[in-house]
Specification:
By secondary structure, the protein is mainly β. Helix content is 8%, strand content 51%. Strands 1, 2, 4, 5, 7, 8 and 11 form a 7-stranded mixed beta sheet that branches. A 4-stranded antiparallel beta sheet has the order 6-3-9-10, with no helix packed on it.
């Protein structure tokens, strides 16, 4: 009996600490009802003891879903680009996906992102695995507006 208890204690001590991910304040939007693309934004909180990383996203709402950010190219030009390595979510910390910064890009929308509707997005994390999030569409939300005047799509 004592051996079983020691074995169990050793296994528990050797087990890696896991990330515990929570998604808060999520919303999706598109620039217009006829837009071919949109984006999803949220706060990703890691209340676990291990760092984690959002590495992918998927949704039936779009033909292609990528993790994106904006990069200042200088001279007032911002470029939107895919972040193939994903976004770190540190243990005990959070990572904001927000307008003008990191976000989930929805390209080739399969239908309009209608105000008041919802889309289902599957987020994939290195440690926490897959998480399905039902995200409300809020095209009227005015968080940190972006200047699309010099925005260029790129890889």
């Amino acid at each position: 009996m004592k051996l079983k208890a020691l074995t169990l204690a050793a296994l528990m001590a050797a087990s890696p600490a896991f990330a515990d991910i929570k998604v808060m304040d999520a919303y999706a939007r598109s620039a217009s009802p006829t837009a071919k693309s949109g984006a999803a934004f949220m706060q990703i909180m890691n209340t676990g003891e291990a760092d984690d990383r959002l590495v992918a996203a998927a949704s039936d709402a779009a033909a292609r879903v990528e993790l994106h950010t904006h990069k200042d190219m200088g001279e007032g030009v911002m470029r939107m680009m895919e972040v193939e390595e994903g976004f770190e979510v540190p243990a005990g910390g959070m990572h904001a996906l927000a307008r003008g910064g990191d976000h989930v890009m929805l390209m080739g929308l399969t239908g309009p992102l209608e105000q008041g509707g919802t889309i289902s997005v599957t987020l994939t994390f290195e440690q926490a695995g897959e998480m399905v999030v039902e995200i409300p569409v809020d095209n009227d939300r005015q968080d940190a507006p972006m200047d699309h005047g010099n925005m260029k799509m790129g890889n």
